[in-house]
Amino acid sequence: MYLLDTHALVWGVTAPAQLPARVRRILRAEQAKVSVVSYWELMLKKGRSNALVLDPAAWWECYVTRSSVEVLPIRVSHVDRLNTLAALHRDPFDRMLVAQALAEECTLVTADPTLFQYGVPAVWE
Fold it and tell me: Which three-class secondary structure state does DSSP give residue 1?
């Protein structure tokens, strides 16, 4: 199973043709889940110049909830795993996604090469 990081999720909806072929195949095969962490990130960045989505609630409802995409909640085991991660990346959302992928034994779909340093199975290209 695959876990999409926030950018992979948004780009999968807004610009799928720009994703690498392997990521598009994963999305077409419906082998990926998303994390509530991505929804949280979209909400907190709403209104900022770097916001990926202007109206996260409506966007999430349309592209995640109505599409029946599996949403991974934050579990105690994820927070425990987060506690073991080195401070290689400053973004708390990305760090939690790494922790979730490790705890759930998922492959993380991300374009962020810094996240690969955590030893999490990851794909992009």
Answer: coil
Q: What is the pLDDT of residues 13-63, one digit of tens each?
A: 999 999 999 999 999 998 999 999 999 999 999 999 888 899 999 999 999
DSSP 43-107: HHTTTSTT-S-S-HHHHHIIIIITTT--EEPP-HHHHHHHHTS-S----HHHHHHHHHHHHHT-E
The secondary structure of residue 32, as a DSSP letter, is E
The per-residue pLDDT for range 78-88, each reduced to its tens digit, is: 999 999 999 89
Tokens of 115: 């996240």
Q: What are phi and psi of 120, to 5 degrees?
A: -75, 135
Cβ atoms within 10 Å of 16's Cβ, excluding its own? 12
Domains with residue ranges and CATH for the chain: 2-123 (3.40.50.1010)
